[in-house]
């Protein structure tokens, strides 16, 4: 039986493999058609049917599909007859090397072979133009055959910015006098340079850069030193011959310089600067019964407007103490929960009350006077006071 190939409808992508179709040319002159030669109505290719002579495969020429079709869908071939081992070869220098062994499956009595560029091959040759061909081994009833070469430019690897700590800063207020370390994780960017960019007068300018190591890049983010600025930031990776470019989403970040605070903010800054010199202060209206708030994990506190005298100082230093608690809690791999449990034991309480009482005792150690009915406690003697002094000094109680 003769070996015949014909083209079916385009096959879809399967897994990570790239499906493509290759032109197949006749390498040997076909034998003269025997009297019982027949015309395959689907492929329009005449094949010799005489069992007495060697069979030579002849296939429909292809070369009409666009590169997008070849890369996106490709063409599936069906093989009639037993057929030999079918392989996909690529040209490497002057030699042809095997890229993949093509599986031949039996479906409804027909044998199908789908030409695929393996994902590993496509990745190793990303962005390069490579010649491919199909080769089939001879069998007792069919001759060996080799297709014509198909030149194909393989797609570049897709680079992505997977995540970024810029997102954690977006919408918050960042201190303009404290260096912020920001990082991002990337896909297909190992060893390349990742740039942190700020938008200036409508154009993106690189303000810091670092090599991607272990899929991560980390930089120190410089920010404007002005009293207040609103800036847009993003991560960017340039394209290479084998990989695409990538940009992260934009993060809009507000920066303030505490050293340039005036008025009410200036008074608060002077009261806490010995212990929280780079802390951003927000002013809130009096709501919810709280005189102040601390944003744990940031350099921000909020104080309600209109406070005066020692109550204002106690509120400001109490929130500053919470920021110092976080710094102590996260030192050397410890956690906020561990410090909370420790302080609850010292102050004989539960929940967050140990943290709150300690913040008041820390404020007292920083120079505030205790006020009855404010600050959670007026008892900062003994171990309670020593725990406050420890947080003031940056030590675990």
From TrEMBL:
Residues 1-34 form the signal peptide. Keywords: Signal. This is Peptidase M48 domain-containing protein. It comes from Galactobacter valiniphilus. The lineage of its organism: Bacteria, Bacillati, Actinomycetota, Actinomycetes, Micrococcales.
């Amino acid at each position: 039986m003769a070996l015949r190939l014909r083209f079916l409808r385009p096959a879809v992508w399967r897994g990570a493999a790239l499906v493509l179709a290759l032109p197949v040319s006749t390498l040997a002159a076909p034998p003269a058609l025997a009297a019982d030669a027949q015309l395959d109505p689907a492929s329009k290719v005449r094949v010799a049917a005489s069992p007495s002579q060697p069979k030579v495969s002849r296939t429909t020429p292809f070369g009409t599909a666009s590169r997008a079709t070849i890369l996106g869908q490709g063409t599936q071939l069906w093989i009639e007859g037993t057929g030999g081992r079918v392989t996909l070869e690529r040209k490497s220098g002057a030699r042809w090397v095997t890229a993949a062994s093509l599986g031949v499956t039996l479906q409804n009595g027909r044998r199908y072979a789908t030409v695929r560029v393996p994902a590993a091959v496509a990745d190793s040759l990303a962005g390069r133009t490579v010649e491919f061909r199909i080769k089939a081994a001879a069998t007792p009833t069919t001759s060996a055959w080799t297709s014509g070469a198909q030149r194909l430019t393989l797609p570049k690897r897709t680079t992505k910015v997977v995540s970024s700590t810029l997102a954690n800063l977006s919408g918050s207020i960042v201190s303009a006098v404290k260096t912020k370390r920001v990082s991002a994780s990337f896909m297909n960017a190992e060893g390349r340079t990742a740039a942190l960019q700020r938008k200036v007068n409508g154009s993106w300018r690189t303000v810091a850069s670092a090599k991607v190591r272990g899929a991560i890049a980390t930089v120190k983010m410089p920010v404007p030193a002005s009293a207040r600025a609103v800036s847009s930031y993003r991560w960017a990776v340039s394209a290479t011959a084998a990989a695409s470019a990538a940009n992260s989403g934009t993060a809009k970040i507000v920066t303030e310089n505490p050293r340039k605070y005036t008025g009410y903010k200036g008074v608060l800054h002077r009261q806490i600067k010995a212990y929280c010199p780079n802390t951003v202060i927000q002013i809130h209206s009096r709501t919810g019964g709280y005189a102040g708030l601390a944003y744990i994990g940031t350099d921000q506190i909020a104080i309600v407007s209109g406070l005066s005298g020692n109550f204002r100082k106690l509120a400001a230093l109490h929130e500053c103490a919470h920021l110092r608690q976080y710094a102590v809690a996260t030192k050397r791999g410890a956690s906020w929960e561990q410090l909370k449990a420790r302080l609850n034991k010292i102050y004989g309480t539960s929940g967050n009350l140990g943290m709150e009482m300690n913040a008041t005792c820390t404020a007292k150690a920083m120079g505030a006077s205790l006020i009855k009915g404010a600050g959670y406690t007026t008892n900062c003697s003994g171990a309670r006071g020593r725990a406050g002094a420890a947080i003031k000094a940056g030590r675990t109680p």
